[in-house]
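Q: Please design a sequence for this.
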């Protein structure tokens, strides 16, 4: 049985990954400082409370286990915040990630799956965005991810550390079994905010900008189901463990939906009215981001199972309703 370290395994994407790894019969160890994750989102494996900023803690962890691979999900993800507070992003997403890579090199762990982002590309120069699209990040978040991608090329050449960088477009949805879902605090992502407005946990959702150069004036994004995203990680892991070379893949469905379209689909799926407040553009939002994921399909054999936006939203709604119901139960006590 292979042993996988999942850093950030209590977070949104990490927790879904842990569940999938356990189902695929891996031995899973989770390292998480619970700054953005939840203990109850870890459905199995060994949990180690800790932070990759702590080099001694990493040394103890890597001395205690013999890892076959490391998957790294523990990063800060808010673009706007990264512009206001870049050191938070460079310290964690860059410097602390180097500690993790150091521990790997020291302990001869040679397989690494890295959560990268569409934010490495900056303003799109053409659509859809394939892996070769120029990398010109326009914020510290995107730059921190791109730095690590570049560093990984050097670590492969010098230390033989093999990696796959997975560039997520908009991760969305929830566990189809209803066990896990998205829980950011504060929540800033469109789909959970829209669904909170549908369930009544929030009065309304603000629509950031209607004057973009898109058919309906609102931003277009490529939403990818969390299950399909994790499935791509599993395939990438399996390929690396069987000797594949380092590489990178863009992960999306190749179809863009505007903010207005997302709200319309959410109204249909939930059967609820959703109150929308028109707001200004949010700083740093590109008008459109749509992935070309043909490479992941061709090389990894990746086949998204839940590509439709209505299914993505339906699974997120199942999670939101459960969460909203439990909040109401507590309110009534
Ligand atoms: N939006 C709104 N109202 C909201 C929230 C979002 O109108 O309350 C809009 C945004 O302006 C954007 C779209 O909905 O046009 C999607 O916004 P999200 O915040 O859900 O997602 P982003 O595309 O901004 O961010 C995603 C990931 C980030 C990552 C970024 C990189 O969720 O973690 O892509 O490009 F950093």
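A: Design:
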């Amino acid at each position: 049985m292979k042993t996988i370290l999942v850093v950030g395994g209590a977070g949104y994407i990490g927790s879904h990954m842990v569940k999938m790894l356990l189902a695929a019969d891996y031995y899973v160890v989770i390292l998480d400082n619970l700054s953005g994750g939840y203990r109850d989102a870890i459905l199995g494996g060994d949990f180690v409370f800790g932070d990759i900023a702590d080099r001694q803690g990493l040394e103890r962890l890597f001395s205690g286990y013999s890892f076959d691979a490391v998957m790294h999900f523990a990063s800060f993800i808010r673009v706007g915040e990264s512009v206001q507070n870049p050191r938070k992003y460079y310290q964690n997403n860059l410097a602390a990630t180097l500690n993790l890579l150091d521990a790997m090199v020291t302990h001869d762990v040679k397989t690494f799956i890295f959560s990268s982002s569409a934010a490495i590309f900056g303003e799109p120069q053409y659509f859809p965005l394939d892996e070769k699209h120029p990398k010109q990040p326009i914020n510290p978040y995107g730059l921190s991810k791109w730095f690590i991608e570049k560093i990984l090329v050097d670590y492969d050449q010098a230390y033989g550390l093999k990696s796959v960088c997975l560039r997520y477009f908009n991760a969305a949805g929830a566990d189809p079994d209803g066990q896990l879902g998205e829980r950011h605090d504060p929540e800033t992502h469109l789909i959970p905010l829209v669904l909170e407005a549908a369930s009544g946990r929030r009065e309304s959702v603000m629509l950031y900008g209607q004057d973009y150069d898109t058919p309906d004036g609102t931003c277009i994004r490529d939403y990818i189901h969390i299950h399909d995203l994790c499935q791509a990680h599993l395939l990438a892991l399996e390929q690396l463990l069987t000797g594949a070379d380092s590489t990178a893949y863009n992960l999306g469905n190749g179809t863009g939906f505007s903010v207005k379209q997302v709200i319309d689909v959410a109204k249909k799926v939930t059967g609820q009215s959703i109150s929308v407040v028109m707001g200004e553009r949010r700083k740093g939002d590109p008008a459109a981001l749509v992935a070309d994921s043909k490479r992941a399909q061709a090389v990894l054999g990746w086949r998204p199972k839940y590509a439709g936006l209505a299914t993505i939203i339906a699974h997120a709604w199942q999670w939101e309703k459960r969460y909203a119901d439990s909040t109401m139960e507590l309110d009534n006590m």
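Q: Thanks. Anything notable?
A: The pocket of UFG is lined by residues 77, 79, 117-119, 141, 170, 188-190, 193, 205-208, 219, 221, 259, 282, 285 (CB under 6 Å). The chain has two domains: 3-172+225-251, 190-221+254-290+306-332.
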